[in-house]
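Sat 14:20. Reprocessing the chain from the morning session after the first attempt stalled halfway. Input below, unchanged.
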Amino acid sequence: MWKLTLVCFVCLLVNPTTTPVPWTPDVDFCSLIYCEEVFCCPTTASMDNTSTISPALLSSTVSPNIGPSLADKGKDKFNEEIKGAGDWTNTTIRSFFIKENEQMIDSRYCERGRCGSGNYSFQIPISKFVPTNMRVTVQMNTTELLVVHLCHHDETFKCSALMDHDQTNEDDNFINTQGYVHEWPLPVSRFYSSSYHFRSAVAGQADCSTDRGFVGALFTDYHFNFYRRCE
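Finished this time. Tokens:
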């Protein structure tokens, strides 16, 4: 049934520089559980005042090697030649949603000025009613047969008081997925903020080590930045 609800993500990005609405919907599971108990998920003492920090400042998915390593002069021309080839495959992901509640992650969550040209960055608030042991699975759907690589993740700001039961590390075992449907269980509910850098590409054509200059031609980058919103 969920297949009928898929929304074309690329179609939603009519203007890739559109500013997100001031208050994007939280990820919550109120349709599945009672939303009465608050889990504000404070982190360590050094982060006591992080509720005043802009979520954009919590982004940490950008690789340390940010600067362009290809000559700018020839890069764009070369990429256009790649995209003009008859066997070129579009590596953009068609749609994203949270599997557990079928909540779409669309252009409303795009960070201003960072959604376009093969590079997309999302700021995704987690509701204060989401328990710290709640499973959150990001499902990605593609029209082409692609590999999605997890290139980097930052889970530094862990909640200071997690629930007592055993916290497994099964969510951290994924390196990549392949196919048309890509499911990524992410432990985002355990953290005050966490970030993930994914790269979608055709198998064998690009991976996490591929030069950033080929973005939009050989691969597409996606940055997911999750944060607790306790206001």
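The helical segments are 9-12, 72-84.
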